[in-house]
Design brief:
- It is a single chain.
- Helices cover 31% and strands 16% of the residues.
- The chain is of the alpha+beta class.
- It has two domains: 2-92, Beta-grasp domain (Ubiquitin-like (UB roll)), CATH 3.10.20.30; 95-214, Fumarate Reductase Iron-sulfur Protein, Chain B, domain 2 (Orthogonal Bundle), CATH 1.10.1060.
- The protein has a five-stranded mixed sheet, with helices on one face. A two-stranded antiparallel sheet has the order 3-6. Strands 8-9 form a two-stranded antiparallel ribbon.
- A hairpin with a 2-residue loop joins strand 1 and strand 2.
- Helix 2 packs parallel to helix 6, helix 3 packs antiparallel against helix 6 (153-163) and helix 6 crosses helix 8.
- The longest helix is centred in the last third of the chain and has 14 residues, at 201-214.
- It binds FE2/S2 (inorganic) cluster.
Length: 230
């Protein structure tokens, strides 16, 4: 099969083409095969190879995917993800994702003693805890391009678990999310459709946004679609 890889080299994007015996393999296995057997200069990022660490996101045939859990059977193109700053070949800078987590203080404030959660209490936040911070929800998000201060879908996905988990001592955690412009989300659902872990970021953003309105942290914003007037 033909594998075309879009690489960032010396400030420009260039395409490299390889012939690889890779039918039925994952994109990550194909990249490893290229690096080990054909072109040792190819750079990409991966660690766990099992869909857990979240480092291997790339675009496969134009769609954002985890390289390690995407199996391919025909010719493919592999590109670096959108939005993030490219560093070398398929490797991009993830720092902007961590900066937004810091800005929203998305972490637990521990209770003096641990308290167990019942299974149904855990169910409420499990979509949030399933997030592996692969960043794919951010790379497909149009709101980021409109508002550089928007907190990112990944930040709100993680924040949901912190806000609604009773083991967090800070019961006013929602306040920390105010600077992240949650209302810049267009609710296009690109993030939800692309998430490889089915975390439904747009749904979690909607619930956080509703609660922020309810507690007076942000003002209610209604969209006028024009067709509701008589
Ligand atoms: S290598 Fe860890 S998620 Fe793909």
């Amino acid at each position: 099969m033909k594998v075309k890889v879009k690489r960032f080299k010396d400030g420009n994007f260039v395409w490299s083409e390889y012939e690889v015996d890779g039918e039925g393999r994952t994109v990550l296995e194909i990249l490893q095969r290229i690096k080990e057997e054909i072109d040792p200069t190819l750079s990409y990022r991966a660690m766990c190879r099992a869909g857990i660490c979240g480092t291997c996101a790339v675009k496969v045939n134009g769609e954002h995917k985890l390289a390690c859990n995407t199996r391919v059977y025909d010719d493919i193109t592999i590109e670096p993800v959108d939005i993030a700053t490219p560093i070398k070949d398929l490797v991009v800078d993830h720092e902007f994702i961590y900066e937004k987590l810091k800005k929203g203080k998305v972490w637990f404030d521990p209770l003096p003693t641990n308290i167990p959660l019942k299974p149904d209490e855990l169910k409420n936040t499990e979509k949030s805890w399933d997030c592996i911070l692969c960043g794919i929800c951010n790379y497909v998000c149009p709101a980021i391009q409109e508002d550089k201060n928007f907190g990112l879908p990944s930040t709100f996905t993680k924040a949901y678990g912190v806000v609604f988990d009773k083991r967090n001592a800070n019961k006013e955690k929602l306040k920390d999310l105010v600077p992240l412009n949650i209302q810049s989300c267009t609710h296009c659902k690109n993030c939800t459709f692309s998430c490889p872990k089915d975390c439904t970021p747009e749904f979690l953003i909607t619930i956080l946004e509703n609660n922020m309105v309810r507690y007076g942290l942000i003002s209610r914003k209604e969209q006028d679609f024009g067709f509701l007037g008589f």
